[in-house]
Amino acid sequence: MITVDHGEDALKDIHFATTETPVRLHSLQFDQAGDGDLDTVELTLLADTQQQVLGLIQRLREVESVHSIEYGRRASTVRRRIRDEGDGHAADEDIDDDNGHA
Questions:
Q1: Cα–Cα distance between 28 and 14 in angstroms, integer?
Q2: Rounded Cα distance, 66 and 60, in Å
Q3: Which has the closest alpha carbon to 90: 3, 81, 40?
Q4: Does residue 92 have a pLDDT over 50?
Q5: Is 13 helix (H, G, I), strand (E, B) or coil?
Q6: CB contact at 8 A, 32 and 71
Q7: From CA 24, how far away is CA 96, in angstroms rounded?
Q8: Is 62 left (phi over 0), alpha (psi -120 to 50) or beta?
Q9: What is the pLDDT of residues 48-59, one digit of tens each?
Q10: Mean of the pLDDT values across residues 73-90?
Q11: Going by DSSP bridges, is the β-strand pair 66-69/24-31 parallel, antiparallel, or unpaired?
Q12: How far apart are the C-alpha atoms of 42 and 33, rounded to whole Å?
């Protein structure tokens, strides 16, 4: 999960960072801040090794509009937040990978 400046073109920078590493971007969830200064971007990544993921994290740390990075294997936080707010479409957006994980 990445916290980025609201209103910045951070998605382009995130895409560039992922293309510069062997890590593949499986999905991206974007939670735009209402009136805040920061947005949340949640990435689902596919990588052969942890070292590849750490290389991507290092690249993301170099992106000026990125304020924080949280990394771990867990269920989607953005989807859970949308579901908790009563948006019935969140379950329809789940994408299962080959291992049955969303």
A1: 10
A2: 7
A3: 81
A4: no
A5: helix
A6: no
A7: 15
A8: alpha
A9: 999 999 999 999
A10: 58
A11: unpaired
A12: 14
Amino acid at 74: R
Helix (H, G, I), strand (E, B) or coil at 92: helix
Closest of 11, 83, 88 to residue 42, by C-alpha? 11
Distance, CA of 40 to CA of 31 (rounded, Å): 5
pTM for this model (two decimals): 0.66
| Phi-psi label, residue 86: left if phi above 0, alpha if psi -120 to 50, beta otherwise | left
Pair 95, 102: CB distance under 8 Å? yes
- Quote the tokens at residue 22: 């062997």
Dihedral of alpha carbons 17, 23, 27, 30, sign: negative
Q: Residue 58 has which token pair?
A: 């290092």
The answer to whether the beta carbons of residues 22 and 48 sit under 8 Å apart is yes
pLDDT at 100 over 90: no
